[in-house]
Amino acid sequence: xxxxxxxxxxxxxxxxxxVHPRDSSQAxxxxxxxxxxxIRGFVEKWGSVWVEGEITSWNQRGSNVFGRMKDAATDAxxxxxxxSSTLQRLPDDLKLGDxxxxxxxxxxxxxSGDFTFAVSAMRHVGLGDQxxxxxxxxxxxxxxxxxxxxxxxxxPFLPAVIGLITGEKSDAEKDVHRIAELRWPxxxxxxxxxxxxxxxxxxxxxxxxxxxxxxPQVDVIIIARGGGDPQTLLGFSDERMLRAxxxxxxxxxxxxxxxxDHPLLDDVAxxxxxxxxxxxxxxxxxxxxxxxLVGQLRSRLTSRLTQRVTHDMVQLEQLRSRPALRAPESMIxxxxxxxxxxxxxxxxxxxxxxxxxxxxxxxxxxTLRALSPASTLARGYAIAHLTGGAIxxxxxxxxxxxxxxxxxxxxxxxxxxxxxxxxSAATE
Length: 428
Known about the structure:
- It catalyses: Exonucleolytic cleavage in either 5'- to 3'- or 3'- to 5'-direction to yield nucleoside 5'-phosphates.
- It is a single chain.
- The protein is α/β, with parallel strands linked by helices and 428 residues long.
- It has helices spanning 32-43, 84-87, 129-144, 171-183, 201-213, 239-247, 265-268, 276-283, 287-320, 323-326, 328-371, 373-378, 423-427, and strands at 48-61, 64-70, 77-82, 98-108, 115-127, 161-166, 189-193, 218-224, 252-255, 271-272, 383-386, 403-407, 412-416.
- It has 4 domains: 46-127, CATH 2.40.50.140; 133-285, 3-Layer(aba) Sandwich (Rossmann fold), CATH 3.40.50; 287-323; 377-427, no CATH class.
- Helix 4 runs parallel beside helix 8 and helix 5 runs parallel beside helix 6 (239-247).
- The N and C termini lie far apart (211 Å).
């Protein structure tokens, strides 16, 4: 078949679309479209191949999946896509970190110049090496208690200074500052820049963490990065960094990636935020919300105080309306008559008791007088006493010559015994 070639005037370069890439030159360049078509024709000759590797990226857009696979030995990667018709035939549990083999066919997009592989089959080989190591480390740290909720430190309600560890001029830094300043305009930051991927990620982050943790003004530390594929986030699952975070005395917030990213730092940190913006929301209170809360509390307090005062005033008025308080003298007047009656009764009882006791006393006095020796002596009797004081009851007690004292009704006189006399003589 004869190919039609447009006529080219002498001294003019042929159109780029007419020049094959291998015949191109500075004077006669080929076009981008012709180059891409040539590459696509070459790539289509490769056919399908089976490849083994670890899934490092898995993004589902609509019903299709776009991802990347990595060679664990050399870190070489390829991009792949899985159309919805193929995805329906694949295992449902394919995910990041899986070690798989896939049947792929090279595909080159002429319009965009993108090179990728279309997957027609894929199955598990086992956990990827990195995922397996991470799972072993996860189990070890969990057994040591580094994931326990009891050891996690609470965040301050309103931190005086927020420590921020992130990449210099990164979107994560901008997001944290923007959200935090919107929520609390007076918020203060102390930022320590560190590499957020690569070989410097772990030592830089540990150094920044120690510096901020030693600052007494820093109340909380945020480690922020704007997400990424598992390969670039490996530093945030490094054991050295995890143990440094666990040993920090200042609360640490992990804000490494998006919701689907889950490095081990999320489990060790005192709080896990899904994004840097979410970290700012979790660390800094909203001034508008706090003002509204204060307003609500003030309103509730005013209402409660008003209710209490009103209730107490009603009770006070009820007490004041009682007769005893409205006219307290009436209670005294009502009791005065009773008091007077009791007083009269008391006086009557006392008088009668005194009269009875006076009569009793008179009777006792009469009885006492009747029994008194003085009454006997008044009737003419006398009592004889020895000088020692003993009463003479027997004549033998006073023999002849014994000095005695004789007591009569009025006074006493001394006498001397003449001895016992006969009864007849005594009568005479």
